[in-house]
């Protein structure tokens, strides 16, 4: 991957206009799609397969008058008056008539004086409620209908006696559409200041912001365009905006910081860009992939709107990664060498004193202090974060309702008035519904059932218990004693469901508990049940990925443990603010209480990817320094331990600046969404801001160096059996660095060059080979498996275990994809028909063609292959393998190739193969062609 990214970075640097215009075109297409296709967001939550959802679907079919969304108007009489007085009753009933005729979407408008409904006037007769039922969900009600509804309420308010109060609210107005405020711009301003300090250049600091804003624009437009095909909640675009900005800035920062350091060291800007994208860009792709997997893993909950949210947010992250590895090097191509920034001012020497030495970096002082007392530091961090996590035990989950809207909102005022005049449960009625087609007296049946329901603890009253017009479905509408988001209401729902079998036996009704409140409780329960499997998924994923990357067991374990600490501490901060009320007023929290149900799972998913991001950037530098330290391979344990400690300190110092900047930027972007943010997004933003700050500065930059110092050289040990089965993933740019060191090898124009080539499984070791353009060579030996392995290795289809191999100008295994594009391969078997293979291998005028198993060809296949090889370019090099070399030589001679080198891979070989290019003689068993 690193070599691919390096080539991509070089190409983008050389063609900056093409890359920039391509991304601007993508923005234009996405924006046009949003304008043409955008259908708006939808805040109707559903959860297929649950009892509440099944109940709603049943009501839609048989009792539509109570299945859609609802609204309510509360009328509070002036002091000393009663809503039952004539001057109130007449105006209210006139308003009910106007509301019923308002629009076709209004199914019913119920007067508080209706004899069929109870509980719509409070016990003191000081307040009454007009209830409206609409066709469909809240998003199906037009803005015009809402405006007309407000007009009727305003007219009623004018008609009622002075001192009375009217307020409009209910499910229809229970959710708000979040938007972007000026405080989010403050986060970007802080990010810009951090970038200016990091890069010491205003122009360079603006580039990460530019790429991040462009990426967010594309992803946001794409999300709004997708509303034509999928249900997207209003929180989804803001979550994508928040994540896209944060990771977009950070990913560009990682690449540009590496590039700036290299340019300051004198590296050519183009070469530096290619290296930066190949090294830091590889880590960016890895970090982005972990975030993608974690976000897509939100589908574990089995809730459609949450799955859509995860996919949309992952799309924003994917765009940020793509822009980071393409547009960032393109912008560096515009900048050329003007990225070094203002040099740091050297410390001045005091008069008469000698010149001071280089100033010790703050990161060096920090990591030295941490690693000097690692056990004490580790205990302090773990105990401290454990204390911070205590409020997490108080977290309660619920879907948002009007009670969490700002106090200035009319829907919130209605919610509070209803709770004050009628009790908190009136804001979240529950519905029991079932089929009653077998009943001969449906009215009495529903009355008896309503009486039984009213006896259950937690039920304040039964407002309605009746069959529908066709007497095939009955409903019981009940008012709980507690608020919709109170845990006691969830307990009541479970208690009602516990009576299912009893009522089925007694009344022969298969009852389902449903309604807006029950749907929210079911979603919260399912999300709570999904947390454990999701946590196992992300932690297990981190263990696997980091084991592959770092070839270590302890590094993944410490990383996963640090992630757990960050998560529970982040939950603790959210609990302290939203449950305990700490700093709630300062953060403009509208109401202290349960938080939105999907906060924990989103926080776990997002923070996982970002935590792995910081882990990779810090620990990969430590690993690199340890591997390159000769003392790290010393047989003396004390020497290796000292090398490991040096690597921890030097690796931390080398990467701390970038990780510090990234953590500050992430924190600034997330925390900017807290003070004026939407009530649904506010706890998510606070949790992410707290989690990032804790993970970056306390866990990754404090706890991890301390634990690494405790582990010493053991941190980099891994069982041999595990090392063998793990795939090789290069996210540290080792292949790019290898190419740089071997840029001048082999020093000639060979199209195939191998030194000490080893393939352990095939028994091939120490092979030396040179094949010039247009040259021909035959590899022979006693093992057909070894010859096949060599053929596959040279053709880029198999990775060698050791040595050096360059084919068609590309170093293997890093450039295997390029080699496969420039090398043709013909693999023979005893029964294979080769009639099409040589043609395919020669297509595209390859620089090298590898033909394995020439001795297995029949006479007809021999003649066909000869005919095709005669048509090959004279500059195409041919490499054949055969157990009988004379057959291969004859085939090449028939094809017009007279200069042939024969190499016996079983023959003893000298340590080097500095042999002249082969001539017509082919007697040597070890030659260079």
Automatic annotation (TrEMBL):
Membrane topology annotation: Multi-pass membrane protein
Superkingdom of origin: Bacteria
Domain SSD positions: 204-334
Biased composition (Basic residues): 342-351
Cellular compartments per GO CC: plasma membrane
A Pfam entry, by short name: MMPL
Transmembrane segments: 172-197, 209-232, 238-257, 277-303, 309-335, 375-399, 530-550, 562-583, 595-614, 656-674, 686-711
Segments of this protein annotated with the region Disordered: 342-364
Signal peptide: none
This protein's UniProt keywords: Cell membrane, Membrane, Transmembrane, Transmembrane helix
Location of the protein in the cell: Cell membrane
Record protein name field: Membrane protein YdfJ
Species of the source: Microbacterium foliorum
């Amino acid at each position: 991957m690193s070599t691919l990214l390096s080539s991509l970075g070089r190409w983008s640097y050389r063609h900056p206009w093409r890359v920039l215009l391509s991304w601007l075109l993508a923005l234009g297409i996405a924006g046009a799609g949003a304008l043409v296709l955008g259908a708006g967001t939808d805040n109707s939550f559903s959860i297929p397969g649950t009892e509440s959802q099944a109940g709603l679907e049943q009501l839609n079919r048989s009792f539509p008058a109570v299945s859609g969304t609802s609204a309510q108007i509360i009328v509070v009489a002036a002091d000393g008056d009663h809503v039952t007085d004539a001057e109130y009753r007449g105006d209210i009933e006139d308003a009910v008539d106007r509301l019923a005729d308002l629009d076709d979407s209004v199914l019913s408008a119920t007067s508080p004086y209706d004899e069929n409904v109870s509980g719509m006037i409070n016990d003191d007769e000081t307040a009454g409620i007009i209830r409206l039922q609409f066709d469909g969900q809240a998003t199906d009600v037009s803005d015009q209908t809402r405006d007309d509804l407000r007009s009727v309420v305003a007219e009623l308010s004018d008609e009622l006696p002075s001192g009375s109060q009217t307020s409009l609210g209910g499910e229809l107005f229970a959710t708000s559409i979040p938007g972007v405020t000026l405080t989010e711009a403050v986060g970007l301003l802080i990010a810009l200041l951090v970038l200016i300090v990091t890069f010491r250049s205003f122009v360079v600091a603006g580039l990460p912001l530019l790429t991040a804003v462009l990426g967010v624009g594309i992803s946001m437009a794409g999300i709004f365009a997708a509303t034509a095909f999928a249900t997207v909640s209003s929180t989804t675009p803001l979550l994508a905006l928040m994540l896209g900005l944060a990771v977009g800035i950070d990913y560009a920062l990682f690449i540009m910081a590496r590039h700036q350091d290299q340019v300051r060291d004198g590296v050519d800007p183009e070469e530096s860009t290619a290296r930066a994208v190949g090294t830091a860009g590889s880590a960016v792709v890895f970090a982005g992939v972990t975030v993608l997997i974690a976000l897509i893993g939100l589908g574990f909950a089995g809730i459609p709107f949450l799955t859509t949210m995860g996919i949309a947010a992952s799309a924003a992250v994917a765009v940020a990664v793509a822009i980071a590895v393409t547009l960032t090097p393109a912008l560096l191509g515009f900048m050329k060498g003007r990225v070094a920034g203002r040099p740091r001012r050297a410390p001045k020497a005091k008069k008469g004193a000698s010149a001071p030495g280089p100033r010790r970096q703050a990161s060096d002082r920090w990591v030295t202090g941490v690693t000097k007392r690692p056990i004490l530091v580790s205990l302090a961090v773990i105990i401290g974060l454990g204390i911070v996590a205590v409020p997490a035990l108080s977290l309660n989950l619920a879907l948002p309702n009007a009670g969490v809207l700002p106090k200035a909102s009319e829907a919130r005022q209605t919610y509070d008035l209803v709770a004050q005049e009628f009790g908190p449960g009136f804001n979240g009625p529950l519905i029991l519904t079932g089929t009653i087609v077998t009943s001969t007296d449906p009215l009495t049946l529903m009355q008896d059932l309503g009486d039984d329901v009213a006896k259950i603890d937690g039920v304040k009253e039964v407002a309605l218990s009746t069959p529908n017009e066709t007497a095939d479905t009955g409903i019981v509408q009940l008012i709980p004693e507690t608020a919709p988001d109170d845990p006691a209401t969830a307990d009541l729902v479970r208690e009602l469901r516990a009576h299912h079998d009893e009522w089925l036996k007694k009344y022969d009704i298969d009852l389902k508990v449903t309604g807006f409140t029950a749907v929210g409780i079911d979603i919260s329960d399912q999300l709570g049940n999904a947390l454990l499997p999701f946590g196992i998924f992300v932690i297990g994923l981190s263990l696997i990925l980091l084991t592959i990357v770092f070839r270590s067991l302890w590094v993944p374990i410490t990383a996963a443990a640090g992630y757990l600490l960050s998560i529970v501490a982040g939950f603790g901060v959210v609990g302290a603010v939203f449950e305990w009320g700490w700093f709630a007023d300062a953060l403009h929290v509208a109401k202290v209480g349960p938080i939105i149900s999907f906060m924990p799972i989103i926080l776990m998913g997002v923070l996982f990817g970002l935590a792995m991001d910081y882990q990779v950037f810090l620990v990969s530098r430590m690993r690199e320094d340890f591997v390159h330290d000769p003392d790290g391979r010393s047989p003396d344990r004390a020497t290796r331990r000292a090398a490991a400690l040096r690597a921890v300190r030097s690796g931390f110092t080398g990467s701390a600046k970038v990780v510090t900047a990234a953590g500050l930027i992430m924190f600034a972007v997330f925390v900017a969404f807290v003070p004026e943010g939407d009530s649904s997004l506010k706890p998510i933003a606070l949790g992410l801001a707290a989690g990032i700050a804790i993970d970056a500065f306390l866990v990754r930059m404090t706890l991890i160096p301390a634990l690494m110092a405790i582990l010493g050289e053991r941190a980099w040990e891994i069982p041999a059996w595990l090392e063998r089965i793990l795939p090789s993933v290069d996210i540290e740019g080792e292949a790019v660095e290898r190419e740089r060191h071997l840029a001048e090898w082999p020093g000639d124009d060979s199209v195939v060059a191998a030194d000490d080539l080893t393939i352990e499984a095939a028994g091939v070791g120490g092979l030396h080979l040179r094949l010039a353009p247009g040259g021909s060579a035959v590899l022979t030996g006693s093992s057909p498996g070894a010859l096949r392995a060599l053929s596959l290795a040279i053709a880029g289809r198999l990775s060698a275990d050791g040595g050096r191999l360059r084919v068609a100008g590309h170093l293997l295994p890093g450039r295997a994809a390029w080699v496969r594009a420039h090398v043709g391969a013909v693999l023979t078997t005893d029964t294979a028909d080769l009639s099409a293979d040589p043609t395919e291998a020669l297509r595209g005028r390859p620089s090298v063609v590898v033909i394995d198993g020439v001795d297995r060809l029949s006479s007809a296949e021999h003649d066909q292959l000869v005919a095709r090889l005669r048509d090959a370019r004279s500059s195409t090099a041919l490499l054949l393998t055969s157990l009988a070399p004379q057959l291969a030589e004859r085939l090449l001679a028939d094809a017009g190739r007279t200069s042939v080198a024969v190499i016996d891979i079983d023959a003893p070989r000298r340590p080097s193969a500095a042999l002249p290019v082969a001539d017509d003689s082919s007697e040597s068993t070890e030659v260079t062609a």
